[in-house]
Amino acid sequence: MAEVSRRPPLLSILIALAGAAFFLVPLIATFNFSLRMTRGELSFAAYRSVFESDTFLSVLGFSTVASLMAIALGALIVVPTAYWVRLRLPHMRPLIEFLSLMPLIIPPVVLVFGYVRLYGTSSILPLTMTETGTNILLVIGYVVLSVPYMYRAVDNGMAAIDIATLTEAAESLGASRPRTIAFVIFPNIRSAIVSGAFLTFSISLGEFVITSLLNRPAFGPYLVQMGQDYAYQPAALAIMAFAFTWVCMVLMELFATRRPGQRLLQWRAPRTVEKAKS
Fold first, then answer.
1. Which SUPFAM superfamilies does this entry report, sorted A to Z (predicted)?
2. Which residues contact 205 (CB under 8 A, 6 or more apart)?
3. Which fold has domain 55-277?
């Protein structure tokens, strides 16, 4: 029988090219526009203008710190929750998964107005009356927005390991449940946590609604304000944000494709582990 050559269908190639052009053509046009700040030549003057701005460095630093705090708080909430649901409450998984999708259903503007009403001047805990309290609300808002992505990343990471066996092994060596989560579960799903962390960081860095309504000096409102006042600098900021997001996506893919290592109880002394094996 003659071997049939496998050629990719022409229609699939055309659809892929059309999809790529739909994303790449506006991106190339934006990048080309960002290089035309100096009349008659292509230059990176708009990028230099952005980096020389003290406001840019300030809002970028604020957003970075807030995003990192949201990543830490989200991991501390999501990892024990996903661990306990998989270990002891498997029948609750559909409900937990549904609840984790609520931030995608409820608009952020509703969420932030709820914060203002709940923690405003007439509440028992008026967080919006102080700068620190408002920053705490901002971080909590970032955590809520990132829950759908962080939870699924962590849950998929736990599906790749045998958490029941790891928990039994840790408990047989005298580990408490918090110690098991911190020194056994966390190291084994670190790639999943990193994937969720990159998604959280990219979402928090460009978030506008919550940040703007809480009046915080972050990157999202700064980008919108630059778009109202300047022509070329917003295009440069958009390209920089796009490049940063793709770097996060590439790093997420690299960490996500690594299989979780079976780290067993490194918090114990090697002699104790050898004694347990024998």
1. MetI-like
2. 63, 64, 67, 219, 220, 241, 244
3. MetI-like fold (1.10.3720)
